[in-house]
UniProtKB/TrEMBL annotation, chain A:
This is DUF403 domain-containing protein. It comes from Wenxinia marina DSM 24838. Residues 1-308 form the DUF403 domain. InterPro entries: ATP-dep_Glu-Cys_Ligase-2, DUF403. Transmembrane segments: none annotated.
Automatic annotation (TrEMBL), chain B:
This is Circularly permuted ATP-grasp type 2 domain-containing protein. Residues 99-476 form the Circularly permuted ATP-grasp type domain. Residues 1-45 are annotated as: Disordered. Residues 1-26 have a biased composition (Low complexity). InterPro entries: ATP-dep_Glu-Cys_Ligase-2, CP_ATPgrasp_2, UCP005522. The lineage of its organism: Bacteria, Pseudomonadati, Pseudomonadota, Alphaproteobacteria, Rhodobacterales.
Length: 312, 500
């Protein structure tokens, strides 16, 4: 496979995942705004979680609900807006057209065409839930096409590595932006306000139901951190994503019969951070832990790009 | 905007404008109805089964199918990009569901003529870059080559692997009568449009399977396999083992990218860009996830000027530095070979009947459109005197741009063109306006005739010449229009060649 193709697959998957995650973040933000007298602070933290608050503030200065949603959904000046990332996803799909099945290509192309329609104009508050649902449905169709029609070979491995690198990044950010509400001192307050924040975290990763099944009805900070960092059953947890990255890189090592530096890095990422108990994480400092994780995840991404020659 | 089906246009008289200019309105030959008018006469033989099917169909259902077809194309991404604009401006080439049908008998004569012509073109290219016998024999003036921009001096003495220069040719044909076909242009560089030929057929098979049980239509679907086989048969001496083929594209923003990806995918080969390739140990190698792997045959969809910044345009970022040196040393096959443009140059075109005769020893089976070379003073005088009746084209022009269609042009346009001609006569050729055949398209008011041309696709290798039955039919969707180019409102049709 061409190195460029491996890179195209990796980025196509990352962007598709990012579109979906951004839709989830907006959904959670909107939920908070509806649950109580929404403050613009909430939207600022949503923007921070999407790693695009700086660009937003540069362009708009003041944070308002309407502007923040528009920025996240369809602003072309925001390279992480749903519309921007879908366009990148499609460009990458075009680039790797010969590596993906016709069904995968058509589902990406159709998703892009439909999102262009849905996001052609500013989305009103009334239409927002449906627009967000459509984004998630559409990206789900792409995932289904990949799952159902792609050979399980190196092509699939690179796509999966992209998906889980993006997802781990997103979950770690969600936790980090809200880490202060999860600190033991904050949780001891135990006010209903904080409950809303915790629920919002779970909602951002579509995990309210899953959390209830495992931990019951009382969201406790340690349980939330345990669920989103360490629980291997939870498909958006750091442990799950890091494990998948390691597995898929492992298949590549087997397939190519070559072990490369990225394999050691992936192993280290899976072990070093995720082998720790929740208490150890809190002792170390949740924020520090997440920052280190994000740094090492980014380094692993670069190593994969180098080892498999995505670019010259 | 660049036409994804490069460098070709058709022209002929426009009925309406001719009547305006005082001439008697002439009825064009119709593929379905022949020379007669479209009244109660029966259709031509090849259209019998289609016509009876069509009569029983509900027009509203057919129009719905037509929209369905366009939706299929949109979702499949069979679009072409418009340069310099956002991706949202990708366009669809309109598709018309009425097939262009050619009888087996008509096709066998056409394909004999095409094969003869393509063999002559390859022999001509070899000769022109070696001994130039045709010039020594006085059949072609020396200056037609020496002063021609399309001639590539770097190719002199180069022996392309397998002796093939133009591996893939798209010969543009137009029809004016029952047995009258003319070659309008020989696209010997990087002809495009073959993906539309294949997708049009797929779409028709999906939408109207019953038509294909009523008609025995020769298949086109094996074109990618034939292309792969033909390219592999041209592998260079340096190749070891099964030849590795690749398709070289300028990238995803090129107007014909869809086709490049389509062909690579269908052949099961890599689609590469210049920055995926480099010279390694005297071979061209592609950067893969496991390291550099040599390529034997490169089907390039990049113009000569851009393939090698070290040997040609230095500012090109699309090509591979040093590839031409590797080519000259026999390390890679480039298809089509550099320098083939000299064979489809519009000034050379006028010599094609001589060229065919010189290299094959036979009279040309397919006719050339009579052509005045404006570099010749007496021809120039004739052209200037008769501009309103002629079509004037730039020698190196393409895509239907920079040309004058006399019968439909305004006085001012003609006056402006007259000045251009006088300033640079050598840059132009002129031809009579042909009465291009029409083929019906489906409109709201039922069937309506529109002008068409035909581009069959021809493959050449040391193993022989292969012509896919049919080709791409382009249709001018605007009533009376003679310009079939997709960049100027042209559409396409499925093209059927019936079993004999």
């Amino acid at each position: 496979m061409l190195g460029k193709t491996a890179g195209g697959l990796y980025w196509m998957s990352r962007y598709l995942e990012r579109a979906e995650n951004t839709a989830r973040l907006i959904d959670a933000g909107q939920r908070i705004a509806l649950t109580r007298a929404g403050s613009d602070e909430d939207w600022l933290s949503v923007l921070q979680t999407a790693a695009s608050s700086e660009g937003y503030l540069d362009k708009w200065g003041e944070v308002t609900r309407e502007q923040a949603i528009d920025w996240l959904l369809r602003d072309r000046d925001n390279p992480s807006s749903v519309l921007s990332v879908m366009e990148y996803a499609r460009s990458n799909a075009k680039l790797v057209r010969t590596a993906i099945t016709r069904e995968v290509w058509e589902s990406v192309n159709e998703t892009w065409l439909r999102l262009c329609d849905i996001l052609a104009r500013r989305v009103s508050e009334r239409d927002l839930p449906e627009a967000l649902m459509r984004i998630r449905q559409r990206t789900g169709l792409v995932r289904g096409a990949m799952h159902g029609t792609m050979l399980r070979n190196d092509i699939y491995d690179f796509a999966r590595i992209g998906t889980f690198a993006e997802r781990a990044d997103s979950t770690a950010r969600i936790l980090d932006v809200k880490y202060y509400v999860l600190l033991p001192s904050a949780s001891s307050v135990g006010s209903s306000l904080d409950n809303v924040q915790w629920e919002s975290i779970l909602r951002s990763v579509s995990a309210e139901g899953g959390f209830r099944m495992v931990h019951g009805h009382e969201p406790r900070p340690k349980a939330i951190v345990d669920f989103l960092v360490r629980d291997r059953r939870m498909p958006r947890s750091l442990a799950f994503c890091a494990g998948k990255i390691r597995d898929n890189l492992g298949y590549l090592a087997q397939d190519y019969d070559t072990r490369l530096p990225c394999h050691d890095k992936a192993e280290a990422l899976a072990m070093t951070y995720l082998g720790r108990s929740v208490d150890e994480i809190f002792d170390h400092g949740l924020h520090e832990f997440l920052q280190e994780f994000l740094g090492d995840l980014a380094a692993l991404g670069h190593q994969v790009e180098t080892d498999y020659r995505f670019t010259e | 905007m660049i036409d994804p089906m490069s460098q070709s246009q058709s022209q002929g008289p426009d009925g309406q404008s001719q009547s305006q200019s005082g001439q008697r309105q002439r009825q064009s030959y119709d593929e379905m109805w022949g020379a007669g008018d479209m009244g109660d006469a029966p259709p031509r033989d090849p259209y019998r089964a289609f016509e009876s099917w069509f009569r029983d169909e509900n027009p509203a259902r057919l129009r719905r199918k037509q929209r369905e077809a366009e939706e299929i194309f949109r979702l499949t991404g069979i679009t072409f990009n418009v340069y310099g604009q956002a991706e949202a401006n990708e366009r669809l080439i309109p598709f018309d569901i009425v097939p262009r049908i050619i009888s087996g008998r008509e096709w066998s004569r056409l394909s004999r003529g095409i094969e003869q012509r393509v063999r002559a073109i390859n022999a001509f290219l070899h000769d022109i870059y070696h001994r130039q016998e045709i010039i020594r024999a006085g059949r072609l003036p020396k200056e037609m080559i020496a002063r021609n921009e399309a001639f590539l001096p770097k190719m002199i003495g180069v022996q392309p692997p397998g002796g093939i220069y133009t591996h893939i040719v798209g010969v543009d044909l137009v029809r004016t009568g029952d047995d009258e076909f003319y070659v309008l242009e020989d696209n010997a560089r990087t002809p495009s449009g073959v993906s539309y030929m294949l997708e049009n057929r797929e779409t028709m098979l999906r939408m109207f399977p019953e038509l294909f049980s009523r008609n025995r239509v020769q298949r086109v679907s094996n074109y990618p396999q034939l292309l792969h086989k033909s390219l592999a048969a041209c592998a260079p001496p340096g190749a070891t083992g099964t030849p590795v083929v690749g398709v070289l594209t300028p990238g995803i923003y090129n107007s014909a990218y869809y086709e490049h990806a389509f062909l690579a995918d269908q052949m099961g080969v890599e689609l590469v860009e210049g920055n995926d390739l480099r010279v390694v140990d005297g071979r061209i190698a592609m950067r893969t996830t496991r390291g550099y792997t040599p390529i034997d045959v490169l089907y390039r969809r990049i113009d000569d000027d851009f393939i090698d910044p070290l040997n040609f345009k230095p500012e090109s970022l699309l090509g591979v530095p040093g590839i031409f040196d590797v080519y000259r040393a026999g390390g890679i096959t480039i298809a089509n070979a550099p320098g083939t443009g000299i064979a489809d140059d519009k000034a050379i075109y006028s010599y094609m009947p001589d060229i065919v005769e010189f290299y094959t020893g036979e009279k040309a089976i397919l006719q050339n459109v009579p052509t005045w070379r404006c570099s010749d003073p007496s021809a120039l005088k004739y052209v200037l005197d008769n501009l309103p009746e002629l079509v004037v084209k730039e020698v190196h022009g393409s895509g239907g741009y920079g040309m004058l269609i006399g019968p439909t042009a305004s006085r001012r346009e003609i006056a402006e063109f007259r000045e251009k001609l006088k300033a640079r006569p050598g840059n132009y050729i002129a031809q009579p306006t042909l009465s291009l055949s029409t083929c019906p398209i489906l409109t709201k008011a039922g069937l309506a005739p529109r002008h068409v041309d035909l581009r069959p696709f021809v493959l050449c290798s040391p193993e022989g010449v292969t012509i896919t039955p049919g080709g791409l039919t382009r249709v001018a969707l605007k009533k009376g229009s003679l310009v079939v180019n997709s960049s100027q409102g042209g559409g396409t049709k499925d093209t059927w060649v019936l079993e004999e």
